[in-house]
Design brief:
Order of helices and strands: EHEEHHEHEEHHEHEHHHHHEHEEHEHH
Shape: globular
Strand order of the largest sheet: 5-6-1-7-8
Helix content: 25-40%
Structural class: alpha+beta
Amino acid sequence: MANRIIFHVDVNSAFLSWSAAYRVKVLGEKMDLRDVPSVVAGDKASRRSIILAKSTPAKTFGIHTGEPLFQALEKCPELVVVPPDYGLYVEASRHFVEILRQFSPQVEQYSIDEAWVDMTGTERIFGAPRLAAEALRERVYYALGFTVNVGISSNKILAKMAGELEKPNKVITLFPEEMAEKFWPLPVRELFLVGSATQSKLNRMGIYTIGDLAHTEEAALRRKLGKYGQTIWHFANGRNADAVRPVPEDNKGYGNSVTTPEDVRSIPQAQRVLLGLCETVASRMRRDGKCGRCVTIQLRTNQFENFSHQTTLHGATNITQTIFDAACRLFEEAWDGATPLRQLGVQVTALSCEPYQQFDLFSGLSPQQYERKLRLDETVDALRDKFGEDIIRRGKFAQDPRGHMAGGLSRHRRTGVTKPVPKEF
């Protein structure tokens, strides 16, 4: 059997690159956003606006992805700010993946701007792995106008880590025999799935580099971090047997969150936000034919402290009102009634493909009432699909100019509306 060859292909600064390429190649603009200090971010007047992507010149000013826009503007007052265009990004991502599939049918899209490609056995067609990767990188650039990094290895984890070693527009290998030189000296925070909280725990154990983690006893990590500790120990040792899966796995849950324009300080305020979130979450579940049994709310204070609370329902459902009622109960149990909140989220898990309910004297809902609520939701979904999500809204939102379908997903991605993009984008 041939040795596995896996590529990880990642678009460099995707949102900014796609906006820049479209403006230059399609709109004919002279200024290339990638050549000047620029960022993709939302409304300057909104506190929710954060940096979604940045150019290389912006990076020299110390601007970071995820930081508030107002802080970036303080660092660089001449910063060029362009709004996100999710319809464009969806189309650019589709064309990007189409090119990857010209090199191999085994493509697993990990996110909108990155994917794994199983190139095992393709040497006779495209040559050695590095030659094939260079050809892929050049084809994406000349056809679509943006650059990518290609990481090459024998498994998915090392291929992904390879692509992070040097940017932009690079082809990098990271095979097991190269780990001691290229991989193990890196800070442990650079390892896939290791966040800042885990970094702090590992540092307290005397683990500062990926090599330190790789050479720590597996049992000690499992005692401190559970199964997660075992997983990252295998990653640090370059072990990962996962196959490239061309067909995406089903969602394990449906969730949405929103940062509010002003602090939430009352239950009625919170209920309006929760209802908007439940509208988007439940409609996505109905679209996919899924029902859920576990409802969770996530809350973030204006001091950026996070906490959550969850409950298990009598049965699996995708009815907006049922999910909303549960979210409201959770909120009243979890919130102290005084701490200002800046972000709320709703998630539904424990999924099934069929609804089921336990109807009893305490559920407050008869089978007939349940069926009527489900039919009502499906009718509303059909109207919104045909005429747009604003064709019908609940009375709570009748006078709300900011919209009623809340959450982190843009309207483009909720409705599937996309900007037409030429094939040679």
